[in-house]
């Protein structure tokens, strides 16, 4: 990695183990859910819609002497626009830089072309690989499905481990997997301060929560045409967090669709996001939301950069 180790290690400190671990897989298999379960908190947005994750959010887990920097990645898919290309690029750069890979698959279904795309990316990388069969709680034939996913790695030379679990309902299995990942870490100084849970600013994190709620509520193609940003965050003396954000759409026609009749939909998105923010911040939140139009932002390199997709 190019990141500077933090902090520099003193001569008589205990040996530390630290590394970057990518969580990859096709859209909607439960990568972000697994990341949040590893950390017992919410650093990444999740939703029933594919392609919720857009940037490689880092989630950090530390013990006294070990630190895993998980890199949650967007689901690898066939891109339709510049945003999609950016998302796939995030996966490729994550894979190049990490010390170990967690490949998450959905055991409710047999592999698809997109799983094969991921398998081809990871099969020959000489790094420890964990094949994680997720959603065992809802899978009818988990062992059979696992066999089919395993077959996609046939001929792989590197070290491979297999785990079947439910990222959503099985904290003990997630903790055991985390132990296994800790064992795979190379000797390194810590990359982040021990207490850090994520590399995102609080503004980026809150914007992702707003986007998650917008994606859950909006229909058809609209969830994918939406971006979010938090422009102002102030704290009142009594602890109230005042957060002002924007929901960005591509066309004027979309603006009305996000706002909804009489502003109902925007209000619902705002209420749901505010509730989540209050739970995680443990403070009362005032959330102001505005909908703005940046024409064709998904195809506009400059707009993508401005929205943090760079
Ligand atoms: N039944 C079941 N559902 C799960 C489990 N893990 C995740 N899900 C659901 O699967 C959906 C997708 O989860 P995400 O964590 O957003 O998936 P992702 O792989 O990060 O998705 P992308 O952002 O599209 O790449 C959500 O509705 C989750 O609640 C699980 O263990 N069991």
TrEMBL record:
CDD domains: Era (cd04163), KH-II_Era (cd22534). Residues 72-75 are annotated as: G3. GTP binds at residues 25-32, 72-76, 134-137. Residues 165-167 are annotated as: G5. InterPro entries: G_ERA_dom, GTP-bd, GTPase_Era-like, KH_dom-like_a/b, KH_dom_type_2, KH_sf_prok-type, P-loop_NTPase, Small_GTP-bd. Pfam families: KH_2, MMR_HSR1. The keyword Glycosyltransferase does not apply. Residues 218-295 form the KH type-2 domain. Residues 17-187 form the Era-type G domain. Signal peptide: none annotated. One of its GO terms (biological process) is ribosomal small subunit assembly. It is a peripheral membrane protein. Gene3D superfamilies: 3.30.300.20, P-loop containing nucleotide triphosphate hydrolases. PROSITE patterns: G_ERA, KH_TYPE_2. Keywords: Cell membrane, Cytoplasm, GTP-binding, Membrane, Nucleotide-binding, Ribosome biogenesis, RNA-binding, rRNA-binding. One of its GO terms (cellular component) is cytosol. It is found in: Cytoplasm; Cell membrane. GO terms for molecular function: GTP binding; GTPase activity; ribosomal small subunit binding; small ribosomal subunit rRNA binding. Residues 25-32 are annotated as: G1. Belongs to the TRAFAC class TrmE-Era-EngA-EngB-Septin-like GTPase superfamily. Era GTPase family. Monomer. This is GTPase Era. The lineage of its organism: Bacteria, Thermotogati, Deinococcota, Deinococci, Deinococcales.
